[in-house]
Design goal:
mainly beta; 2 helices; three-stranded mixed sheet; single chain; about 15% helix; Hypothetical Protein Aq_1857, Chain: A; 9 strands
Length: about 130
């Protein structure tokens, strides 16, 4: 007699990064004006700056091995595998201010930032 194990519905994995409507719209606008054949935007973190780390953004021409791909609101974000634990739970926004506009990372793993806002201290999320 063969026993069957009940199947549980597969729970969707949480996305490591979420986009606000403003961020998604700006990325779509940037991609529409790009002069290359890009798939989306690659987001990561790098060591540097007075607080220890900085966020990085670049065009993504291809999917790199082990990279996480987030498709949200009509755009694709490629996440460097070394950055995933630093970005889990992050909301990416785009803000326009009187003297400029920029992408902002609202990261619950961030523990400090420098005065100029260009570098941050980030603790990896608990897996």
């Amino acid at each position: 007699m063969e026993t069957q194990t009940p199947t549980r519905p597969r729970r969707e994995r949480p996305k490591p990064i979420r986009l606000t409507d403003a961020a998604a719209a700006r990325i779509a606008e940037i991609m529409a004006g790009a002069e290359g054949k890009y798939l989306g935007v690659r987001v990561g973190v790098t060591n540097g700056g007075c607080a220890g780390m900085s966020y990085t953004m670049a065009y993504a021409e291809e999917v790199s091995p082990f990279e996480e791909v987030v498709e949200e609101k009509g755009v694709k974000i490629f996440i460097d595998p070394k950055a995933i634990l630093f970005l889990v739970g992050t909301e990416m926004d785009f803000v326009q201010e009187k003297l400029g506009a920029r992408f902002v990372f609202n990261n619950p793993n961030q523990t400090a930032a420098c005065g100029c806002g260009e570098s941050v201290s980030i603790t990896p999320a608990k897996a």
